[in-house]
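thought: fold this chain, then report.
action: predict
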Amino acid sequence: MTGCEEDGHCTTCADEARPATVLRLVDGDFADVDTGSGGIERISVALVDAAAGDTVLVHAKEAIGVVT
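observation:
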């Protein structure tokens, strides 16, 4: 994982990152994701190599890791 610990905490601010499923990539560095709580959000995926169907850890609308 890049930018986060194995337990899902952000190393930058010690806040928790949340998992989300990538639905589609949009405009290169952005993606629409399913947050699992009934919502779809647009986030940045500039820091990770994510594809549709991947689960990413999201903090402050930025994907900071891809769950393998």
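thought: worth noting. DSSP finds no helices and five strands in the chain.
final: tokens above.
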